[in-house]
Each structure stands twice: as C-alpha cells, then as structure tokens.
Amino acid sequence: MPELPEVETIKRGLENSLKNQTVLSVKCHRDTLRQVIPRRIESDLTHAKMINFARRGKYILIGLNNQQTILFHLGMSGKIIISPEIINSTIQKHEHMTLITQEGQRLSYIDPRRFGVIDLYPSAQIHPLLRRMGPEPLGDNAYQQTLIIHLQKYLANKKQPIKLTLLDQHIISGLGNIYVCEALFLAGISPLRESKTLKHSEIIKIVKRIQEILTQAIEAGGSSIRDYVHSDGKKGYFQMQWKVYGKEHDLCINCLTKGKKIGIKRITQGGRSSFYCDNCQK
Ligand SMILES: [Zn+2]
C-alpha cells in the first residue's frame, strides 16, 4: 500500500510534469473502483487547466481552473504513471483512467485491486472523505508544538494501545503500519502501551521520530520520482532500510550495540502485524 511519503513523492512528480497543463481528453475505462467514478469527469475535465497540486493524508488533489478538484486515492495497489502521449498507444492492463494533456503528456491511473478512488468535487468544498481526517503529521517547528498538544489531548483518556491510536486517521492522518512500527521502535515505546499512560516527554519523542522518518523517506523518494511516475511503475517502495518492520526473529540492532541478542517480535494488533523489541521498547 502506498504510504504518505510515496504519495507525497507522486504528488510532487505530478506537479513537476503537469502543472499548468490543459486537459485535452479524459477516458474512464470502468465505472467503479472503491466507489463510483463520476461520468462527468470526462466532460468536466476537458479543456480545464491543472493549476494546483496538493496532498491531504494519502489523497492527491489536483485543483483545476474551473473551480473543481480531482481527488485520487491509490488504495492498496494503485499507481499513477506519466508518459509522453503516443498516438494510438494501447491501454495498459488495469488502467482505469487515461488523461491526455494538450502539451502531449499522458496520465495513466492503474490499480489492479481496485481499492482506489477517483472523484471530482467543487474546490470550495471539503470532500466527504477528507472531512473527519486528523491533522497532518508533517509541518514546521511551530506546527510540531501544535501536533504534540493535539496528541496529548487525544491520548489522555484513551485505553487503546498507542500503535492503534497512531493508525487512527481521525487522530493523525496519513500514518501507515510501516512508519508507525518504525517510529515506535526509534522512540523506545512499546506498541502495546496504553495510550493514556504516555508521558509528555514520550509523546514529544514519538512526534519527532514520526516526522524524522517521514522526512527521510520523502527525501529518499525525491531521487526516485522518475521511477515513481515516469516508468513502467515496477518500483514500489523506496529503498528504506527498516529496523523492525518485517524483521521477525532478526536481532534488535539497538540491543545488539549493548551486547544483548534479542529477537524482534511480531504480534497482531487490530488485524495487522506489529514488529517490536520487547527489551528496549517499554
Ligand atoms: Zn531492543
């Protein structure tokens, strides 16, 4: 599943390739993904200029000069590929939408498992899928303080394990399983900890580690934008070196520096795997 850094990288790639370009034609090759694709997309997008590119959580938003916004979500397996438009080029397997610009670029939305979303809505409104989303995890220093206060307020009465709280998109948006596992490891906090037991200093650590790891991943992605939106899309995740995610039975690198051989554990929380070290994450 594309996570926030991948989505941010795709957004930047689209902006670099398509900003201020005008839509020549749009063709949807099916009616429904996770929800219905509005038919009017084909007519409403034609002749519109793509002027504003944004990300909210894992949604990509493209603002048009006709006061409408396109919303994309990549679901479990979606990708967006930009290529030069070749006349009469064939539709790729699982390509559900093709957008061609007057400047000769082609945007292909491809999603084999079809859990993604393509929608169009008035720019002056907030899309229903975005209305109940928590704040973004990334921002400047002043924003970091705001986020810490926000989290402290929400964690204060929550019994649920911190791992599940951080995955709750109503509390903080855009965090997926991999980044939460890694951030908790770096912060030395067990995924099993009751949210309300976290001290102020621990919340600060979590927020900082989340921001560091997302920023690193976006920077790693910056150099692979071309792989992400300009090729056949075979490359999936950035080549980030995970410390606990997917490392069940590997030795904890943190404990190893202290001469202890402790294996990474895998447990299931909320139907998803959590990887952690029960020696150094408390
Ligand atoms: Zn450890």
UniProtKB/TrEMBL annotation:
<dbReference type="GO" id="GO:0140078">
    <property type="term" value="F:class I DNA-(apurinic or apyrimidinic site) endonuclease activity"/>
</dbReference>
<feature type="domain" description="Formamidopyrimidine-DNA glycosylase catalytic">
    <location>
        <begin position="2"/>
        <end position="116"/>
    </location>
</feature>
<keyword id="KW-0238">DNA-binding</keyword>
<keyword id="KW-0456">Lyase</keyword>
<feature type="domain" description="FPG-type">
    <location>
        <begin position="243"/>
        <end position="282"/>
    </location>
</feature>
<dbReference type="InterPro" id="IPR035937">
    <property type="entry name" value="FPG_N"/>
</dbReference>
<keyword id="KW-0227">DNA damage</keyword>
<comment type="subunit">
    <text>Monomer.</text>
</comment>
<keyword id="KW-0326">Glycosidase</keyword>
<dbReference type="InterPro" id="IPR000214">
    <property type="entry name" value="Znf_DNA_glyclase/AP_lyase"/>
</dbReference>
<dbReference type="Pfam" id="PF06831">
    <property type="entry name" value="H2TH"/>
</dbReference>
<keyword id="KW-0234">DNA repair</keyword>
<dbReference type="InterPro" id="IPR012319">
    <property type="entry name" value="FPG_cat"/>
</dbReference>
<comment type="similarity">
    <text>Belongs to the FPG family.</text>
</comment>
<dbReference type="GO" id="GO:0003684">
    <property type="term" value="F:damaged DNA binding"/>
</dbReference>
<dbReference type="GO" id="GO:0006284">
    <property type="term" value="P:base-excision repair"/>
</dbReference>
<dbReference type="InterPro" id="IPR015886">
    <property type="entry name" value="H2TH_FPG"/>
</dbReference>
<dbReference type="InterPro" id="IPR010979">
    <property type="entry name" value="Ribosomal_uS13-like_H2TH"/>
</dbReference>
<keyword id="KW-0479">Metal-binding</keyword>
<keyword id="KW-0511">Multifunctional enzyme</keyword>
<keyword id="KW-0378">Hydrolase</keyword>
<dbReference type="GO" id="GO:0034039">
    <property type="term" value="F:8-oxo-7,8-dihydroguanine DNA N-glycosylase activity"/>
</dbReference>
<dbReference type="GO" id="GO:0008270">
    <property type="term" value="F:zinc ion binding"/>
</dbReference>
<keyword id="KW-0863">Zinc-finger</keyword>
<dbReference type="Pfam" id="PF01149">
    <property type="entry name" value="Fapy_DNA_glyco"/>
</dbReference>
<keyword id="KW-0862">Zinc</keyword>
<dbReference type="InterPro" id="IPR020629">
    <property type="entry name" value="FPG_Glyclase"/>
</dbReference>
<protein>
    <recommendedName>
        <fullName>Formamidopyrimidine-DNA glycosylase</fullName>
        <ecNumber>3.2.2.23</ecNumber>
        <ecNumber>4.2.99.18</ecNumber>
    </recommendedName>
</protein>
